[in-house]
Amino acid sequence: WREPFAVYLAPLALLPIVLKAVPAKAPRRRGEGDATDAPFPWRHALPIYAVAAAGMLTFYVIPTLIPFDVADLVGVARASAWTGAVVAAAMVASSLASTQVARLRRRLAPQAIGAISFGIVAIGYLAISTHLSILPLAVALAGIGAGLGLLMPTNNAWLLSRVPDAMRGRASGGMTMCLFLAQFSSAFVGGALVAWGGLDFVYLAMGVFATAVAGLLALWARR
Length: 223
Prior knowledge:
mainly alpha, Growth Hormone, Chain: A
């Protein structure tokens, strides 16, 4: 089971390209036109960080807990192949949905897109909590993937829309920190919920949580 993690070595192949193609620029001094003395826009950033963390917390239930559900549905012998298929369905749907973000942003505020995203995720998890068979499970997971595919690029654009150029690295670093903390925390949250009520209870709880976040974002969009 350790061998798949070797995939994380793949980016090393890009290192020579990065060293050759990315220019090394001297850092600018303070006062050279990038508003580096301005305070960081925490009031803008923190709510977006919270939305991003909520999205990652709900999403990471899929790779950590769905394999156990799949094993119950198709048996241990076929669980690996089916787990790969249903998780891939979520990832492919996420990729396809993300291509529509620019079109949606021309019509809707980021809060509204976030509300739609969490609404789709909520429907998917509430459906899974009814103990679906394997093919409807794959469809529900694709829906969850699509919802989160809309959310992540929206959050990034939303965050950087009101951050000075000189602070974009700091803002993006904060986003990355929140995403990985949520990813790390999801295993503990999911484990506690499983111990409390079982797998179906986890999906129900994630559905209720996503519904609540969708409602808050919808209210924010109306304001």
